[in-house]
Design brief:
The chain is 44% helix and 7% strand. It has 86 residues and is mainly α. Helix 2 packs across helix 3.
């Protein structure tokens, strides 16, 4: 008996609405300023009281393969190839 595979979802559907918004903000900020946003920039943009919330969202995007985070590097975020550029 042969198992039928489920159709694969487009990669962007693996993200929540907020995760897509954060990813879009990363793209938009980089295009505008030619530098990635800081955690504080992200938190301020979304109205979060703490940059920890930004850090948590970035970790999820990293774990899902959309970005790379360089620890100890200011603005150490890299968009990975095929990361759903808008």
């Amino acid at each position: 008996m042969r198992l039928q595979s489920q159709p694969r979802k487009p990669r962007d559907q693996w993200l929540t609405k907020r995760q897509r918004e954060v990813l879009y903000f990363l793209h938009k900020h980089f295009r505008r300023f030619d530098v990635m946003p800081s955690h504080r920039d992200i938190a301020e943009h979304f109205g979060w009281n703490s940059s920890k919330a930004a850090q948590d969202h970035l970790r999820v995007l990293r774990d899902k393969g959309y970005i790379r985070i360089y620890a100890g590097v200011p603005r150490g975020i890299k968009l990975l190839k095929g990361a759903g550029r808008p």
